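Lab notebook page, bench 4
Experiment: in silico fold of construct C2
Operator: M.H.
Input chain length: 151 residues
Purpose: comparison with the prior construct
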Amino acid sequence: MARNVLYPLYQLGGPQLRVFRTNFFIQLVRPGMAQPEDTVQFRIPLEMTRVDLRNYLERIYQVPVAAVRTRVQHGSGRRRDHRQVRVKKPDYKVAYVQLAHGQTFRFPNLFPEKEQGPERSAHLDLQDQLVEQQRQSSDPRRGSIPAWFSL
């Protein structure tokens, strides 16, 4: 899982075991298209392999994994900067993780719609009326200049 880590297998005195943190950061992504409930989509570094991702999820988060599929998404190169030089977005790897039998995943609804009570809707109606009155009232200092002609 960790890259470029070399440590001796045996040292005199038998020092305590070391805990290594990974060099990888993965990002959970909401899929653009509908997927089965047992499939989760991640954005991972290009250097990370399927085996690395499986070990990462099983050992750190204790998530049982059945299968991992990956693909490389090439970054768009259509944009140009002020000197008309192409600016390419970086490439990234997308991983589709199929969870073990019986496991499902659904994104939580972080921002549920709040029900508006009658006093709340009356307050919003009053506020909308006030804003509309301010918008329609003309400024005597402007004279005959139309309202659309302003900064």
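Observations: Strands lie at 27-29, 39-44, 65-73, 79-80, 86-87, 92-99. The longest strand covers residues 65-73.
Next step: discuss at group meeting.
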